[in-house]
Amino acid sequence: MDGGDGYALKFLMMKTQNYQPSRRAALASMFAMTAVAHSATAEDPVAIAGKRPMILHNDRPEDLETPLAYFDQWITPNDAFFVRQHLPRPVIEEASYRVAIGGRTERQMKLSLAELRKLPQHKLPAVLECTGNGRGFYQPRVPGVQWGRGAVGNAEWSGPRLVDVLKLAGADLTAAYVTVNGADVGVAKTPDFIRSMVMRKAVDPNTILAMNMNGERLPDLHGFPLRMVVPGWDGTSWVKWVNSLVVSNEQDKGFFMDPAYRFPKHPGLPGQPVDRADLELIEGMPVKSYITAPADGDKLPMAGAVLRGMAWAGEEHVTKVDVSTDGGSTWTAAQLSEKSLPYTWRLWKTEWRPVQTGFYTVMSRATDSAGRVQPIVSRWNPSGYLFNAIDRVGVVVEAGA
Amino acid sequence: MKRVMIAGLLVAGGCLAADDEAGKKALRTQCVACHSLRLVESQRLSAAAWGKEIDKMVGWGAVVQDRSLLLDYLASEYSNTKPVPKPDMSR
Questions:
Q1: Measured between CB atoms, does A48 come within 8 Å of chain B?
Q2: CATH topology of domain B2-77
Q3: pLDDT tens, A13-66?
Q4: Beta strand pairing status for A55-59 and A62-65?
Q5: Cα–Cα 20 to 30 A to A131, which of A39, A280, A283, A312?
C-alpha cells in the first residue's frame, strides 16, 4: 500500500467509526474513499467502539465474531458479544423515537421509549446465535460471512413483552403473523430487513422488545433502543432498531423471509442447488455444544486438566453433554452447571487424567429434552445455516508441560 | 520459431497481467458500495458460485461494467481451490 492509499485508509476508518448511513453526503464520501482504500492491513487495524478485539469479517457494516477465549463465563459481556449486520446501522434519535403498531389492530399507535418503559419489564437470559454461525466449516464452501464458532453469545435481556405492546393497540391475536421492521434501510436496491413471526411465538411471554442487555442500555451495535428477543430462535428473528410492528395474516414477502433464512426440507447433495419450493422457514435452533478449554493446540500436563464448555438447545433444555478424549470411540457424561433452563446455555465440565503422553482429539456432544443429539456431520445446505456438528479440539499431553 | 513462441508467451502474459489489474480495479471500485472488501476476500468459491453472487449483487444495485472481467478475477483470485485466509482481528 502506498502513502496515498494509507492516508485514504486512515480517513476511511475515521469515517467508519462515525458512520452515519442516513446522511447521503457522508455515504458518498465513504464510497469515494473506499474505492481508493482497500481493506485495512495488519499495520492499520480497525477499531470498533465498545468492543474488545474481535474477529473481523466485515468492517462496513460491522460483522464481528467473538473469539472462543472470551467464552470463559456464563454471560457473554457486551464488549465481547458478536455483531451481525445486514445493512448499515441507522442514526437513532432517542427523543423522537417511536415504534408504530398497526395492521390488524383496533387502533394505530406510536409508542415512545418512555411509554415502553412504563409497561411491565421482563428479564431473561437467552442465547443469541446467528443462523449462519459455523458457515465457514461447511464443505463445499458456501457464500456468506465465513463465521467460525463465535457468532453466538448468552446475555440477560430485559424490556416489555411483545404481547403487552400488541395488546395496547388492541391487536387481533388470532391473526397469523407479526411483521417486524427496524430503522435500518437497504443501500442501493438491497432489500430492507423485515421479518414475520408466527403469532404463537409473538405472544409467548418470553418474547420481548429488549431495551437492556446485561443490565446496560442496549448498545448501538446491538439495536439501541429496541430489539426483538425471540428466545430459542435463530438470530434472524431478533430484529434490531425495531420501529414497526404490523399484525397480519400474511407473511412478509421480502428477500429476508424467502428465499433467505430457509433450510431444505429434504437432505440434498452437498454443493447442489435446492429448489426454492423445497426450502422451509427456520424457526428455532438445533442442539449444540462447544469446548472452551483447553483451546485447540494447547499443551497439557500428565496431571490432567479440567475440560470445560457450554451447550444450548434452542427452545429445549440441554439434558446431557458427553465428552470423548479418544476421537469419539468412548464417551463420558460431563457435569452440567447452572439450572436447567430453556433458551440459555449450560456450562459443562469434566476432569481428565490422560494415561500417556501424546496427541488427543477431545470432543463434546450435547443431547436435549427433545432427544436431539449433535451429529458428527452437520447437514450441508446452500446458505450454510444451522451448523451444529460435534465440537472438537486437538491437544498435546507432555510429561514436562 | 523459438523466439516467436517466447514473444507470444510474453504478449499473453502481459494481457493476463493487464486483465488481472483491471479485474482488481473493478472489484475495488464496483463491489464496495454496500460492504467492505473483507466480505469478498474471505470467500473461496467456484466460478459458478461467483457468477451467482455477481448477479445477486447487480440485482441489488451494484453497477458492474464488465461482468466477465470481474468474474474471471474473482474466480481465479478467490477460488475454492485456494486456502482460506485467517480473518484479521479488530483493534
A1: yes
A2: Cytochrome Bc1 Complex; Chain D, domain 2 (1.10.760)
A3: 333 333 333 333 334 334 434 433 444 454 568 999 999 999 999 999 999 999
A4: antiparallel
A5: A39
